[in-house]
Amino acid sequence: MIILDENGKLSSKSIVHKGNVKRITCAMMKAAEGKMITVGYIGGSITEGAGASSWGKNYASVTTHWWKNKFPEVDIRCINAGIGATGSILGLHRVYDDLLRHKPDFVIVEYAVNDEDSDITAKCYESLVRRILKSENRPGVMLMFTTRNDGSNVQELQKKIGLHYDLPMASFRDAVWPEISEGRIKWEDVEADVVHPNDNGHYLMSKFITDRLEEIYKNLSTYADRDFGEIKEAIYSQEYMNASILNNTLIEPVTYGSWCTAVQTPQFRAGWAANGGFDPLIFEVEGKNIGIIYKKYNTCDMGRVEVRIDDQTLKLLDGHFEADWGGYAHGEILAENLSKGKHKVEIKLCKDSHPDSKGREFVICGFMVS
Fold first, then answer.
1. Fewer Cβ neighbours under 10 Å: the N or C end of the chain?
2. DSSP state of 277
3. Phi and psi for 193 in degrees, rounded to 5?
4. pLDDT tens digits, residue range 323-357?
5. DSSP state of 232
6. CA of 6: how far to CAs of 169, 176, 187, 230, 295, in Å?
């Protein structure tokens, strides 16, 4: 079944907030002047393209194609910064390296099914939005909300932030979930599994974005004012605004203990790996908020570590992943609101592992600091 939404009914239902489009019109005007445009996307596996049958059919590629069709003589570049199973906490810490250094003119943010409804998530999601809005090119930003197979997401949390900054917002959930729950569309018509859209779903996601872009494009001549105005004060906090990631090219341990330098992972630069002993890996990390990125795998040989900051036991981290789809890089905040200055971070391999694991492997990709 191919769902085309030819009459625009679904697209109309997808509109959460039309928002202030000055920045988007500036990107279009720039393209109309023949200047290069960079279109960026940041999110989880849906943005990365999971569920689509080929790279060209994921929503980011289809949306970028709209820009290329509108401005065929212009160099339109696409930066897809989606990484599967990651949320906006990790997205915030990597946004400069993976997206903003490319100076995007238009950005889609997609984290509605990857994020949790928590205070830390709210702070980091807002800081992510602010970082993009305040970046060098002053890009236009649109928020996209997808859905799980029970109709759930964290749209309300993210919508609050979007309204505060008067951003255009589109919801795949708002458009499609009522059709599914009322039996007019089957879940499998638009979804490849419990959360990832199939080609139909990716097409509809892109249509909800590009129909709004089309409306802006048709009225481009009416938008002459390029004054964006001031960005509002933060709702939650600005304590994460300088967030970044430290890998083994940027920080050296005080002592390696029973650890060694790890090879580079597919999505992240090199980190550190346990080699079977129990002597701790120790760092001095400067930051008021400190987090960690580590690999979780569903193999039978992943171990656990105990993490201490300033000699206080904080967390027990388990590298074993119980789901059946491989694994991912997990980002987790360890401590917030620490005193200014350097802090001792100690990571020690535990002697026990998950009951389903027979090994003690553990891989750290880096630290999240702000």
1. N
2. -
3. -155, -150
4. 778 789 999 999 999 999 999 999 999 999 888 88
5. P
6. 21, 14, 19, 38, 43
CB 68 within 8 A of CB 100: no
Could you tell me which of 253, 285, 290 has the C-alpha nearest to residue 369? 290
CATH 3.40.50.1110 domain range(s) in the chain: 9-222
Q: Which residues, including other chains, have CB under 8 Å from residue 346's CB and lie 6 or more apart?
A: 280, 281, 282, 307, 308, 309, 311
pLDDT surpassing 80 at residue 218: yes
Which 8-state DSSP code applies to residue 25? H
CATH class of the 244-369 domain in this structure: mainly beta
Mean of pLDDT over the chain: 94
Structure tokens at 139: 């890009």
Retrieve residue 337's tokens: 């609101």
Residues 64 and 209: beta-carbon distance below 8 Å: no
Phi, then psi, of 306 in degrees rounded to 5 = -105, 130
Instruction: List the structure tokens of 276.
Output: 């079977």
Residue 122 sits at the vertex; the CA angle it makes with 121 and 126, to the nearest 5 degrees, is: 115
Q: How confident is the model at residue 299 (pLDDT cuts 50, 70, 90)?
A: confident
Q: Is the predicted pLDDT of residue 235 greater than 80, yes or no? A: yes
Alpha carbon of residue 351 to chain centroid? 34
Quote the CA–CA distance of 22 and 26 in Å, as a whole number: 6
How far apart are the C-alpha atoms of 232 and 210, rounded to whole Å? 27
Whether 33 and 75 have beta carbons less than 8 Å apart is answered as no
Residue 38 bridge partners (DSSP): 77
- CA distance linking residue 333 with residue 319, whole number of Å: 16
Contact 130, 168 (CB under 8 A): no
Residues 95 and 92: their CA atoms lie apart, in Å, by 5
DSSP secondary structure letters along 150-212: TS--SHHHHHHHHHHTT--EEEHHHHHHHHHHTTSS-HHHHBSSSS-B-HHHHHHHHHHHHHH
- Encode burial over 281-307: b for 16+ CB neighbours within 10 A, e otherwise: bbbebebbbbbbbbbbbbeeebbbbeb
